[in-house]
């Protein structure tokens, strides 16, 4: 059991919970907030969307423990929200719901769209809605309802309400110390410190500190390349060659230490094209390097920060090299809802393994990484299928 404390619809709650419980189950079963609907429970349909620290998040793929000390808002928590009131009215007027199953998630996403894209046209609305599925309406009424609210806001602005929404996190934060226990939970005496995340070999204290940064996700993995350490180390310093081993990545500028570039990713119905810059810090004596980068996807306006640390060590009497990789990242914006799921972590591990085989191919003189990686999107959809199959195979004791 883990102890967590958070606010749900401005009410502080505190107690113990199994780490495997996702936020959707926690809200429905422990908080009795059944307005949050669960459809696919795979992060696809959007029915379970809630706000965590004012960002839309899929509660079915977010562990409740990951929301420790955060502010969660469900559809029940918008009673005094003028913007949500306008959306609700507009949904009714434009027949934007039938069975209503998708409606809580749809309204929360609609509110986010209205806040982020005050000048959105129909194409933009449809694009932003693509992560919320409705089996009844055909979307016409939903799109019309959002368009009507956007038009109305031009005539009757909502500056105060929007400002209030933006300030909500800061306003409720001081309430945390007066927490109360979950109805069915046993209160524990104190909230334990966040667990430290294991760092790869040779990782220094500054990286251990960074691994504990709030909101960051860290993933450790390693792969073995059948070449001597010095050869692999020299290769890893050649940024264009390393970039060629990442599908969908493209360098636009680089020198020995800094790069600018972009990477295209497709995740089910969502596409992202992150453009940004990164800096490489290498320690030749320790054969260890850190690439620190940041970028933005201009379609979804999601932002990403990430550090990739890799440390090389000899294996098999020096004929092979183990590359220990730690990826730490934080996503902000609409894509943040995908950052914490186990599926995505498995996907990233598969990506790291794929990266290792591409490096092996390049070092061996093979054409495997293919010339124009920028031309192919990094298709999480197809890779995710292999990850899902791997999970199923493990479940039944088969080899993935
Ligand atoms: Fe479908 Fe969460 S239940 S995305
Ligand atoms: Fe039925 Fe959308 S109104 S699923």
UniProtKB/TrEMBL annotation:
A Pfam family per the record: COXG
SUPFAM superfamilies named among the record's database cross-references: 2Fe-2S ferredoxin-like, Bet v1-like, CO dehydrogenase ISP C-domain like
Annotated ranges, domain 2Fe-2S ferredoxin-type: 2-78
InterPro entries registered for this protein in UniProt: 2Fe-2S-bd, 2Fe-2S-bd_dom_sf, 2Fe-2S_ferredoxin-like_sf, 2Fe-2S_ferredoxin-type, 2Fe2S_fd_BS, Beta-grasp_dom_sf, CO_DH_gsu, Diverse_Oxidoreductases
Keywords noted in UniProt: 2Fe-2S, Iron, Iron-sulfur, Metal-binding, Oxidoreductase
PROSITE patterns: 2FE2S_FER_1, 2FE2S_FER_2
Gene3D superfamilies the UniProt entry points to: 3.10.20.30, 3.30.530.20, [2Fe-2S]-binding domain
GO terms, molecular function: 2 iron, 2 sulfur cluster binding; metal ion binding; oxidoreductase activity
Name this polypeptide is given: 2Fe-2S iron-sulfur cluster binding domain-containing protein
Organism: Paraburkholderia pallida
Lineage: Bacteria, Pseudomonadati, Pseudomonadota, Betaproteobacteria, Burkholderiales
């Amino acid at each position: 059991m883990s102890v967590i404390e958070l606010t749900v619809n401005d009410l502080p709650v505190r107690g113990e919970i199994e780490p495997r419980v996702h936020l959707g189950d926690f809200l429905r079963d422990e908080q009795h907030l059944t307005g949050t609907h669960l459809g696919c429970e795979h992060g696809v349909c959007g029915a379970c969307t809630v706000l965590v620290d004012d960002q839309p998040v899929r509660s079915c793929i977010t562990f409740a423990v990951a929301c420790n000390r955060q502010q969660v808002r469900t559809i029940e928590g918008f009673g005094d929200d003028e913007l949500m009131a306008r959306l609700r009215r507009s949904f009714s007027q434009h027949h934007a719901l039938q069975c209503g199953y998708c409606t809580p998630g749809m309204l929360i996403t609609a509110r986010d769209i209205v806040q982020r894209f005050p000048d959105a046209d129909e194409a933009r609305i449809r694009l932003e809605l693509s992560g919320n599925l409705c089996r009844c309406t055909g979307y016409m009424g939903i799109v019309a309802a959002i368009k009507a609210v956007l038009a109305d806001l031009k005539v009757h602005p909502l500056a105060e309400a929007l400002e209030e929404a933006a300030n909500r996190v800061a306003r409720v934060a001081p309430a945390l110390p007066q927490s109360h226990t979950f109805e069915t939970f046993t209160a524990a005496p104190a909230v334990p410190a966040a667990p430290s995340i294991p760092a790869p070999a040779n990782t220094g204290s500054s990286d251990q500190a960074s691994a504990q940064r709030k909101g960051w996700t860290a993933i450790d993995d390693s792969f073995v390349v059948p070449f001597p350490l010095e050869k692999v180390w020299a290769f890893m310093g050649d940024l264009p060659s390393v970039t060629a081993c990442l599908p969908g990545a493209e360098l636009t500028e680089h020198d020995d230490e800094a790069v600018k570039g972009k990477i295209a990713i497709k995740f089910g119905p969502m596409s992202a094209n992150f453009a940004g810059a990164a800096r490489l810090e290498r320690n030749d004596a320790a054969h260890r390097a850190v690439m620190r980068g940041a970028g933005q996807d201009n379609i979804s306006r999601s932002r990403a920060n990430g550090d990739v640390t890799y440390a090389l060590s000899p294996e098999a009497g020096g004929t092979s090299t183990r590359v220990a990789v730690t990826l730490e990242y934080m996503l902000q914006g609409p894509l943040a809802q995908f950052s914490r799921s186990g599926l995505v972590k498995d996907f990233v591990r598969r990506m790291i393994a794929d990266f290792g085989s591409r490096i092996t191919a390049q070092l061996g003189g093979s054409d495997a990484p293919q010339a124009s990686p920028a031309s192919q999107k990094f298709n999480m959809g197809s890779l995710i299928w292999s990850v899902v199959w791997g999970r199923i195979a493990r479940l039944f004791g088969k080899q993935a």
